Amino acid sequence: MPSLRRNKTETPIAIVVLLLVASACSQTKTAAKAPPSTESYTQPLPQDQGTAGLQQELRRLNTTARLMMVVAHPDDEDGGMLTLESRGQGVSTLLLTLNRGEGGQNKLGSNLFDVLGVLRTLELTAADRYYGVDQRFTRVADFGYSKNPEETFQKWQGHDIPLADIVRTIRTFRPDVLVARFSGTDRDGHGHHQASAILTREAFRAAADPKRFPEQIKEGLSPWQAKKLYIGNVCGYGASSCPDADWTLKLNTGAVDPLLGTSYADFAMRGLKHQLSQGAGGWTVEPGDRFTFYRLVDSVLPSTLDMEGHEKSFFDGIDTAITGLASGFGEKQDRSLRQSLQELQQDIDKAKAAAATNPQTAVQALLGGSNTIRTLLSSSESGGVSKSTKQEMRFILAEKEDQLRIAANLAAGVQLQAEVDAPVSNSPETAYMAVPGRAFRANTHFSSQVSAKQIKISLLAPDGWTVKTLKSSASGDDAQFEVTPPQDAKLTRPYWHRDNPETEALNHIDDESLATLPFPPPPLIARASFVIDGRPSGTSVPVVVKYREDGKEKERVLAVAPAFSVLLDPGEQVIPVQDEAARPVTVSISSNLSNKAKGTLRLSLPEGWRSEPRDLNAEIPAGAVPDDFQFKVFPKNLREGRSEIRATLEVDGRRYVEGYSVVTRPDLDTFYYYQPALQKVSVIDVALQKKLRVGYLMGAGDEIPTVLRQLGVNVTEIAPDKLATADLSLYDTIIVGIRAYDTQPQLVANHRRLLDFVQAGGALVVQYNSGVGDFNGDRLTPYPAKLARGRVSVEEAPIEILDPENAIFHRPNQITQADFAGWVQERGLYFMDQWDSQFTPLLGSHDPGEPDLKGGLIEARYGKGIYIYTGYAFFRQLPAGVPGAVRLFVNLISAGHETN
Q1: Residue 812 preceded by cis peptide, ω within 30
Q2: Which long-range contacts (CB under 8 A, 24 or more apart) does 302-311 make?
Q3: What is the pLDDT of residues 162-195, one digit of tens each?
Q4: Of 285, 311, 337, which residue sits at a domain end?
Q5: Taking the model in full, what pTM does it have?
Q6: Residues 6+ apart with CB under 8 A from 516
Q7: pLDDT tens-digit profile of 399-451?
Q8: Which candidate, 306, 294, 281, places its Cα nearest to that of 248?
Q9: Which of 329, 334, 789, 812 is deepest in the core (most CB within 10 A)?
């Protein structure tokens, strides 16, 4: 089942992206369970609220330690270690993930490339809430599997582009300790993994060198030298034991934290389970000790190793006490500062003692600590101290002031609510969106369990927005505002993009001020200032909108969207060069206005093509439910190549030429994926086998059935749960979708029916599966064969036709070397490495410097029919309209039926 809720044609560009988690997960062999859907992503986790949240914040107040981990992809992170450091030790922790996983396989559905990157960013930030970490990204993209760092750096145009973003993050976050999840060696496997560790080693010293990336220094960032650098994967990824000589630090993430009520590893796994597109739904952690190992590889400190070459903490040799901030200020100033810092520590200790019995009594000590910090910030301006020392002092104290304010608000039971005054929609994709130039109202409410005075609520908006206070209660705890975004207000959208996600390996950054952030910040923030016990404080929250889902009221952060979203359906079209028949093109328009609108809709077509009608007078209903407008497009003078169709909607003199999809899931936050209103057209010279009847058993989800129908192939999707009783004699060929045996247990249970279909004269085309052990154990092939993890990741890798006389290379299309040009992302994955003599290997290929792999396409005659297994990545090539791949796939599904 596809992972994303789609419109009726299920094309990748015109999607409303809401994952149907429960249904998809119920079909997996691992019985994957979605995380609870009751979480509110505008509210902290229960462990970060109330008394538990206060205790967590007090842990953070007790240390100045800062740690930054660097990984390659979402799900690479050592969540147990991050949770141990952040939640267990109170360390300020940041995770830098080089890319967003947009080139990976989607375990739940057919959506790939940049929309998958948005989804995986949401999944990772959901996991981060459990780890207790901040999240950053670089601008490099996941271009697919890479076997070595050399290829990775070639795709990323060298080291400096990702290195600059890592250095920027180090200079901004200023960690004491830098940790690479991987080792930078062949042990890491994936070239992205190796590259992430290589870059981390380089960044450790580069961030401290003002001559490296001097443009950052001109912006106001200062050089920063982390004190220690560690690498991971020193004993094998996920190893449970490790020789003493191979590690410096051994941490037990299986230890139980009483504030969490479980182990760090288990709590982290609750977060990791949100990464369902990675297949994490069924992952578990057994109770008991669980060790993770790291090795110290660089340091600017004297040796911190014991006689066995080990340490007890990442921070051995680093003074992380509050009073340690006084060092470097000179003996006289050091005494004065140390005394003030001791007073701050005493405030924290008092708050901790009070919170143990009555959290509300901790408020005075916490707000008193804020006053102490303000005094300290003033005294740190004294002369005779280096600029860098002052900066470090101010940086840490500012963080501590924020932590004290958060802790005080938790102790006082402070709550601030801010929501748009709009009707509550019945789905997340139709929830209210702010529209440039259109006013809306927002209601706010402040409350506190401890008496608060001088309450004042305001809204913080971007420049150019108009905010008017309509009314406010006498006590100040309730207020209503009218807000009007300007006509040129920034839309809530990714600040990065790729012009051609199928070929580009770097993201273009549209707003450099947002570089490295997961998403842009919320556009509208509510702020409350107040006084408790005579001491000023404050709190802030994003303004949210309400909607209903599964009968429950939920909320998400207000977003800004255009008045109209315009998308073409399908987003990609494959047309045989021989077929100039009219083609339907659907333009899907959704409105964010509360009133009906009228506009003119037209298509921009390739030269010589025409549409009926030429222009369409569109009456657009109010509300965000998409409405479809139909055109007939008549191609003309077709020849093989690529072109595009674009749509333009004009309303009241304004032109709308793009649309967005709502990317969300019941267990995730929400964001938006924007696409131009265009349809990519691939005209292909391809011959079809006449009257071929094809059945398609969908696996994790792909677009191959859509492409085959566009070509004119008679395709019927067979529901996996109907396989046991379906009349398979209705089909000449049955195609098994990608990862179908991994995700559809009904196929495994009834695979004998598919083999009987072949024996009776049918053709069965089985595409790749990633569950190697299960596939081999279930013996799903007609003769013995062994699936392996062999793959050819270089899409330009040479191809050898091993059996050139085979009909597969001649009917109905002649296949030549030219048909293997222009492939995207990769050649193939999960090839067979052993097979019975009844099988014939058809193609050979290999990555540079590696042995030839001949198990990517094999076929065998079985009874009266033919069985074909292919690991070649047709699921990427066909939607991309790669001509040779289309021709070869048509030949595969025609095998054995050339005379029909």
Answers
A1: yes
A2: 304/228, 305/248, 308/244, 309/244, 309/245, 309/248, 310/244, 310/247, 310/248, 310/249, 310/250, 311/248, 311/249
A3: 999 999 999 999 999 999 999 999 999 999 999 9
A4: 311
A5: 0.91
A6: 96, 136, 137, 138, 165, 168, 169, 172
A7: 999 999 999 999 999 999 999 999 999 888 899 999 999 999 999 999 999 99
A8: 294
A9: 329
